[in-house]
Design goal:
By secondary structure, this protein is an all-alpha fold. The protein has 2 domains: 5-63; 72-272, MetI-like (MetI-like fold), CATH 1.10.3720. The chain has 10 helices and 2 strands; from the N terminus they run ββαααααααααα. The protein has helices at residues 21-44, 49-66, 74-107, 115-130, 133-144, 148-172, 176-184, 189-223, 231-240, 244-272; strands spanning 5-8, 14-17. The protein has a two-stranded antiparallel sheet. Helix 5 (133-144) crosses helix 6, helix 7 packs across helix 8 and helix 9 (231-240) runs antiparallel to helix 10. The two termini are 35 Å apart.
Length: 273
């Protein structure tokens, strides 16, 4: 928070102001730039007025087609696809943890005091986060073909940047006292990691892992739209065939799984962390 600045009024009395003239000008310039960016974004979005006016009627027609949901299709096809989605999210998260933890260690400058290694590790983390999971899925579908393998790898490679970044930051924020004591006692690097760093970062690790699994359950539900397995493939097929009553069942199933995953993560965090 910038310090208050004294200013003289017309009678010469001192009056305190929160910002200087330069600071107020800079704040105005930032606000003006934000407004200009919003206006430019709105102008670049092509909105067809006829479609906008007709949208409520189209939505009502769509919901009419989706009701009542056709629950008869759930045991045959939807349940298996839903379980595959959960497996994709779980295996992808597990693979991401295995791959991300070494990268997170290399990115922590207090463990690996080498700027080139730190920058290379951070480049890997940034590259993982900068590519959307659907783009990863398209890439792996092109390599391995459609199916759950492509979805699992897409989830894993998307999650490496998230897990590695947060885990590396947790390592950098670890208290130096226990590590210095272990170093003074002649403990090797593995012992310093096991007894010095890990007890401090273990709560953060479990929190990161559970939170990422929760996110991956949601993301894996749509990977099937590009052929990467899971419930998304059933959703894409039902939409292409205009089977809206089956689409309703799939959407309800996805919503139920997301809510259940949130409850599971919350309960596990209470008992583990």
């Amino acid at each position: 928070m910038p310090a208050a600045q004294p200013a003289a009024d017309a009678h010469g009395a001192q009056r305190w102001r929160r910002f200087t003239s330069g600071q107020r000008l800079a704040r105005f310039a930032v606000h003006l730039a934000i407004v200009a960016a919003i206006v430019a974004a709105i102008r670049s979005v092509e909105v067809i007025p006829e479609f906008l006016v007709d949208a409520p009627e189209q939505m009502l027609d769509l919901f009419t087609r989706m009701w009542p949901p056709d629950w008869a299709h759930y045991p045959d096809t939807i349940h298996e696809a839903l379980m595959e989605t959960i497996h994709i999210a779980s295996l992808g998260t597990l693979l991401a943890l295995v791959l991300a933890l070494p990268v997170g260690v290399l990115a922590a400058n207090n463990l690996v005091p080498s700027t080139p290694v730190n920058l290379f590790a951070k480049l890997i983390l940034v590259s993982s986060r900068s590519v959307n999971s659907l783009v990863w899925a398209l890439l792996f579908v092109g390599i391995f073909g459609p199916g759950a393998l492509a979805g699992t790898l897409a989830i894993a490679f998307r999650s490496i940047g998230f897990v590695g970044k947060l885990f590396g930051e947790a390592l950098e924020e670890a208290q130096a006292g226990p590590i210095e004591a272990l170093t003074a006692a002649g403990a090797p690097w593995t012992s310093r990691m096991t007894f010095g760093y890990w007890p401090q970062v273990e709560p953060a690790f479990w929190s990161i892992a559970l939170f990422r699994w929760d996110i991956n359950v949601r993301e894996s539900a749509v990977l099937g739209l590009v052929g990467a397995g899971g419930i998304g493939m059933a959703l894409d097929s039902a939409m292409n065939l205009f089977q809206w009553d089956r689409v309703a069942v799939i959407l309800i199933a996805i919503f139920a799984v997301v809510v259940l995953a949130e409850i599971v993560v919350t309960q596990v965090r209470k008992r583990v962390i």
